Target: TetR/AcrR family transcriptional regulator
Amino acid sequence: MSSETRQQPARLTRKGQATRSRIVAAAAQLMYERGVTEATLEDVRAAAGVSGSQIYHYFADKQALLLAVIEHQTEAVLELQAPLFDRLDSVRGLRAWRDAMVEFQRRLQCRGGCPIGSIGSEVAETNPEARLAVASGFLRWEGAIRAGLGAMHERGELEGDPDDLALAVLAALQGGLMLTQIQRAVRPLEVALDAALDHVASLVRVDPV
Amino acid sequence: MSSETRQQPARLTRKGQATRSRIVAAAAQLMYERGVTEATLEDVRAAAGVSGSQIYHYFADKQALLLAVIEHQTEAVLELQAPLFDRLDSVRGLRAWRDAMVEFQRRLQCRGGCPIGSIGSEVAETNPEARLAVASGFLRWEGAIRAGLGAMHERGELEGDPDDLALAVLAALQGGLMLTQIQRAVRPLEVALDAALDHVASLVRVDPV
Model:
């Protein structure tokens, strides 16, 4: 995120912070709806209700703004799940997380896919810096899942490698989200997560409920 | 695929077929490397070594070409795996398919992701016709996996629903491919498919080897 860091002043006033946040939120929404390439800085400017010079005050270019959006979406995705992450150290907690992920997609009418994954898929071959930022976001997500599985493992309840299982659960989530977006139906996400969690459950010797 | 059907003449000469195929192959490669939005018709024209009027002879617009690319990539993906599909009615055959998918990504240095999935992710929110074409491609892929699992189920070897398991395996593959593309490492794909196939294997009562 070097270009963002370069651009972002060391200290922003409270008002400056608010303006910057509004620009990032508007860009995130537009990139989510239309894709990174299709969302122009002019669209972002209009949606955020700021002037062009205000955008350039906070972001050197679209790349800097994209990196801020990836950070923003990572935070949003993790914050949304935060209340559920604490309970991922039991099969019951994992199932509750699965239900919440499915319900969230249902409310969105299966639109949009994963806010991080869809950016990642779009930029992976053309923008190494953005690809790495997405990879970093996924690592944090994987880490949150891993924490629950690791706790079960340390308590002697879970056989199998918690690192591998966390990555497998994240992959099932991502594949399920993408197919759910393409099919406009929650079934792919439900089935993908159920299979992954059934696999985890089959490796659990004792599950405290 | 209405616009393509409209545009494509009822009969093409052999030379016309070859020219059309060359255009589609060039477009598929460019869209794979750069994304759908970034690959312009002018880029395709240059890469295929044809004139602008030749492109418009075969395709009314970029949308028609995109639909032909989705069809082309679906065929390519299924053809690549065809020799392995016949053996998906055993755990050994499923593992061989997994190994081939991983090896293929290794040879590509984990670049590109899924040729269908990456288009799907890019167009899902902005192009319903293309989204449905991608959904149709995924259904064929899911069907090929389902055929093997269904055969096991009919022989009484596989417990569990072969429809759900086929979709879960495809989701694990897609999520694994995307994370492998983002991380430039085969481990996500390996781990995702291993978890999905371990789950299938746990439901197999007899596996003829």
